Amino acid sequence: MMEKMIFGRYVPAHSVIHRMDPRSKLLMIFLFVCIVFIANNSWTYGLLVIYTFAMIALSKVPFRFIISGLKPVLWLILFTLVLHLFLTKEGELLFQVGWFSIYEEGLRQGIFISVRFFLLILMTSILTLTTTPIEITDGMESLLHPLNKIKFPVHELALMMSISLRFIPTLMQETDKIMKAQTARGVEFSSGPIKERVKAIIPLLIPLFVNSFKRAEELATAMEARGYRGGEGRTKYRQLSWGLKDTTLLIFLVILSVLLVLFRT
Amino acid sequence: MSKKQLVQLENVSFQYDSEDRFALKNVSFDIYEGEWLAIVGHNGSGKSTLAKLLNGLQFPQEGSITVNGMTLNEETVWETRRLIGMVFQNPDNQFVGTTVQDDVAFGLENNGIPREEMLERVNYSLEKVKMAQFLDQEPHQLSGGQKQRVAIAGVIALRPSIIILDESTSMLDPRGREEVLETVKELKDIHKMTVISITHDLEEAVRADRILVMNKGELYREGSPEEIFQMEEELVQLGLDIPFPVKLSKTLKEQGVFLSKHFLSEEELVAELWTFHYKK
């Protein structure tokens, strides 16, 4: 169950978006987050919606995966919509029952903000659904590379990320094993009152922590034995390749931004 | 033996900060080029400490270690690590990369090998340990024996002259252990490497050309497998379990069955037994 939570994200498929350089995808998300705020009327929002859905279509990811990514934030979006409906008191009065009233501007703002939320989440879903975690790590390392000059530990950060990614399944398996071992000793994880169940987590966490520290130490020894001494003088096995499609993607995004600026009111 | 000495230990003593007992006391021996040396001993005999010292993960308080003519110290440590590859006990805790190929490449990346050559070496090494079809597999999809073979590929890729197996097979099932030892044997022959296997498993030590027995931080005995297994009772007292064929030939002898020698491998013993009557 837990494995699905984290690994259900990446959906392998053969699409243009899948084959793109993670850097271009990361840059796209970053730019998109900025230009979403330029939109302020139906025309500009319409453009953004068309762009987003075009990207989803290109990514060839089944729609249900994208929807499942929206579920956890649905409540947040509904909440902001309701807040806007109730609290923005501008424009024409649309509807009134006693003290409760909805104004035109409130409805407009509420819808726009919700659409903005939806679009942002859809776009980031496209990134995580079409890019493996390790590719994202590589992309980040490469994009953050200039920060090395101000002594920001880019390589170490990327290594930390990739090691965590590598150990997630290992720790999951281990948790499973400890859980079974403790169940055999009479600990109940899945029934009983909440308080008891929370208490039952302790005999699960302690061995897990102890083992993780042991693992960390052994891993450090193994890394050192294999000649690891920080990022300096290191070559890279994984290579990112920036292609025509990556440049095209970014040019498209620039055109979109120009259009947004032209059509906004 | 007129072979070239590759590693020399001279009066090496070592003590961990947290302990008052010496982990190693005045140990001296040589390791020769191209041999398979087994270092055996019970837990706490100092054999694992020895592995750490050989790779410069710790430095001895007294005495000196010379690898290929270089005295091991903080300045030469990176150069010696290039010569000595290590395979550790826990298959999971030495797997650094997210996939098989990334892990093999890790050591190469550390040593600044150009990418073109890396690709070549990664493929070659994985081919040699018969893991080439698992290139993009993630560690949790592999068995312990497969992970250890990937670790060996990572070592081979760096083209060391010595490979140290530090209890590398102790967490594996018999099949995984067999796979790993076979792989090491083949690679040793192809690349003319020196193998140092540190183990408490005498079945593994049988494959060695020479065995060092460690006890309480001291070098207890040194000899060929045949010589060492003559010790029988002594070995048991040191907390080591003698291999089954040796045990069986000993019991048979006690029962009055005449065997020409102590047998180390099952095949040899079987061959002796089924021709037994015929010879008589």
From TrEMBL, chain A:
Coiled coil: none annotated. Signal peptide: none annotated. It is found in: Cell membrane. Pfam families: CbiQ. InterPro entries: ABC/ECF_trnsptr_transmembrane, EcfT. It is a multi-pass membrane protein. The chain crosses the membrane at residues 26-53, 65-87, 117-134, 244-263. Keywords: Cell membrane, Membrane, Transmembrane, Transmembrane helix, Transport. Forms a stable energy-coupling factor (ECF) transporter complex composed of 2 membrane-embedded substrate-binding proteins (S component), 2 ATP-binding proteins (A component) and 2 transmembrane proteins (T component). Transmembrane (T) component of an energy-coupling factor (ECF) ABC-transporter complex. Unlike classic ABC transporters this ECF transporter provides the energy necessary to transport a number of different substrates. Belongs to the energy-coupling factor EcfT family. This is Energy-coupling factor transporter transmembrane protein EcfT.
UniProtKB/TrEMBL annotation, chain B:
Its EC number is 3.6.3.-. Belongs to the ABC transporter superfamily. One of its GO terms (molecular function) is hydrolase activity. Residues 7-241 form the ABC transporter domain. It is found in: Cell membrane. The keyword Mitochondrion does not apply. It comes from Cytobacillus eiseniae. Pfam families: ABC_tran. PANTHER family: ENERGY-COUPLING FACTOR TRANSPORTER ATP-BINDING PROTEIN ECFA1 (PTHR43553:SF24), HEAVY METAL TRANSPORTER (PTHR43553). Keywords: ATP-binding, Cell membrane, Hydrolase, Membrane, Nucleotide-binding, Translocase, Transport. It is an enzyme of class 3 (hydrolase). This is Energy-coupling factor transport system ATP-binding protein. InterPro entries: AAA+_ATPase, ABC_transporter-like_ATP-bd, ABC_transporter-like_CS, ABC_transpr_CbiO/EcfA_su, ECF_ABC_transporter_ATP-bd, EcfA_1, P-loop_NTPase. It is a peripheral membrane protein.
